[in-house]
Amino acid sequence: MAGSPEPQSRTLPSSWTTGDAGANIQEALEALESYKKKDPNKVVVRFKAVGNAPIMKQNLYKITASNRFQAVIQFLRKELAWKAGDPLFTYINLAFAPAPDDTVSNLFKMYTVLAQSFATEGHLIVNYSCMGLRRMRNAFPLSSITSGDTIQARSYDHRAVNLISLIFDDAL
Amino acid sequence: MATYRGSPSAFATPASTTLFRRLTWEGTVPLEIRVDSKELPANSDRGLETYYIQAPRVSYLPLIVPELKRFLLDVVFDEAAARIMKEEDWWFESEEGSLLKWHWPLGLIYDTHTISQSVRPTSSSLSQAPSPLRLILHLASPPTEKLLLAPSAEACKQAFMGQMKEADFLRWGSTKRMTGLRKAEQDGLWEGIKEHNFDEYWRVASKITPTTTPLRSQSPPPMGAMHTRPPSADPQGATPDRDGAYNVRSVPVRIYLPEGPVLQDLVPPLLENGSVHTLQQFLSTHLPQLFPPSASEPPFHDLGYALVQGVVTPPETEMAWLGACMTGADGWVNVCIGVLRDGGQR
User: Fold this and answer.
1) CATH architecture, domain A42-167
2) In this protein, which residues make up the domain named Autophagy protein ATG5 UblB (chain B) (predicted)?
3) What domains lie within chain B, and their CATH numbers?
């Protein structure tokens, strides 16, 4: 164990003992090779704009499962024609921002299954915005809107409506 | 901390929970950081450019940069070099040439290195003391394409917050607990890691980390025979702990294979037949070639072993318990799988 001063051999408890050593290592290495095989399947990713981010003309895409999430971010930037310096925030199910080296296959496996209750129809939902969620929530403090208030709708307000529904959404 | 309504099991008292959380927090890994000799500025004091540090497992590379910088300025670089040094351009590589991830905790970086050594044919068994992980520090031209994340403490903090939220979401299906924290509290988590202060970190983390609740009746069960009853069947009439480790939807777990993929899947605390989800069952479900399902009773004939926080974890360990007591600071249980070598020794 790290920090322990014992330098002597660390044998495993007997319940972990293996049989024929050489053959076992070979078998283990072969098993590892099979686990390294990349998933060739594609998963459906649905991009949803949040706040005043522009809505994409086409928002459903098939992406190879073995891709890292970084590839999804780069793809999104290209589709939106946003430069590397422009702020782009991405979230899964409006809940959290995944690490760029998370694979699409892991994200799909984890968050499509769990989100069935949110009726996501088997898509991995990727939300994107140019502002972080906390800043957005701070920009529209709950105290300034009470239920029953009429909210003036204006021309660009499909996005505003999207944002208002976010504020009252439990997922936030 | 969990409050009691029945006799505490030997395995889930607040004292033992705190003990394991503190052991995890205080765990360290030895690092040996050497500046790439081709990049040492002129007039540097050569021969002294290696820095040794016993770094906390729960910390991150950007957080040890300030200490490293002070050392290099004091001992190695002359004034001219110090003036032009830009730590935003710093990046780390392992001795084998792989780029190090800034957003991975140091314990994870060390353990994944350990397991990748376990598949090298020339590696001797780990019968000697843990050896330092040798890193090369580059001072310029960071490969920004491959780095994925800006190598700054701020980007690292954001990545950390993202991992906390993902863990929260996995456990409870929403991030209410994380987003319910005030900004100062969220920042307090990161400050606790920066200052390496257990109390400061856990003051906030205890609000979002699952508690351990005794599920069992009075006497602790014999080793290897963990029969449990759901909280509602407890004869003492204990009310189930809403935040209990056995009530999560899924324990946040990732499996790391040597130089291989990172696997993630749902890890319910209890299996469909009501039994507690153990590490052995988890591994034989997801890596059956290394942990054959037929060997889920002792003696196990596994081809690999599992490291959590650098500790070879016993097969009967409960996943829910790991999720409450041995997560990293970011809430995740990182299980690193190594290959067993001769006769039970790693």
Assistant:
1) Roll (3.10)
2) 251-337
3) 28-146 (3.10.20.620)
